[in-house]
Amino acid sequence: MHDKKADLVGPGIGDYAELEKILPHDYHSLLSPKETQIATYAVKDYIEQNLCKELNLIRVTVPLIVDVSSGVNDYLDRDGSRTPVRFHISNDHSKNPVDAEVVQAATKWKRMALKQFGMQAGEGLVTDMRAVRKDYFLDHDHSAYVDQWDWELAITPDQRNLQFLKQVVQKIWKVIKGAEHHVQQLFPKLKTDRYPDLPEELKFLHAEEILERYPDLPRKQRETKIVQEFPAVFIIGIGWVLQDGYPQEMRAADYDDWATETRTEDGRSMHGLNGDILVWNPVTQRRHELTSMGIRVTAQSLKKQLEISKQLDFLKLPYHQAIVSDHIPLSIGGGIGQSRTFMTLLKKAHLGEVSATVWPRVLKDMCRKKNIHVIE
Questions:
Q1: pTM
Q2: Which residue in the list 78, 82, 111, 133 is annotated as catalytic?
Q3: Where are the domains of the chain?
Q4: Which is it for strands 203-206 and 232-236: parallel, antiparallel or unpaired?
Q5: Mean pLDDT of 247-259
Q6: Is 289 a catalytic residue?
């Protein structure tokens, strides 16, 4: 039996000897470094414009740092293993100092921003978010620097259901596929039999259904298996404890709703109004996560999830109080990894080919030997 518990937080590899085996041995980028930059921004512009069109969003500014006392920073999981960079701003040294954190994601801030910018149901926002996640292992698709299209859409109470979630996911998939077509028109060499395109259709499966297919495998291996069968899948219900006693993955208790009971098409009871889009990466021959998203918690589901995660003390924070008091809109939202998406659509072997950040020397040397051009 594999260790399922050890597999619950963070999808990284955690070992450079293992990473060396994973990175392709016969890799040649389809685009030059210069062409990669042009293609990257062509994809970026296309996705931002079409997300706004499909979901009725506007682009807004987003913070890089937040006040610790606000409670709006994203802790990513609920076991405390991934903490933000924190620092003290002395300011006037005695009367008005600030304790600040670098954001790990804008998940909670966006929902507060819906009210700040006066968004009504059916209106929303998208941000060009930058963050730092210092506790990641730096491998081929994880870095300490994170760039995402963080988006949020105000909704009505009757839209808090799986059908609406799937409708929104389909719109996002339409944008991603559209970006693929767009960049291949600009660079026809990206269309190649060696690295197949993303499938036209996205497969929806609940985490419980995937567990039923592979009951003895831990989460990452289940995900690897399922994207080999369905090259693009949306996994529903991430955070709720499944039949084997473990969640698909640890998920923070105070943004996505993973506790609400739902029903499958054949009438079975499941939980969760959230999920992730995973695709098969033909370059690395591995699972590849593009986006995490979900319908957000209500006052009721927030309290339930905080109780499950033993974090009821969070209820005193301003963000959590705003939910409990119904002072901010109901919403659905998510984060689409920018560099992850560029890596997929430009058929790259390493995140560093499309993202400028810090990498350890061992990784840079490894990439150099494998003909992988990492931006420095």
A1: 0.93
A2: 133
A3: 5-369
A4: parallel
A5: 92
A6: yes
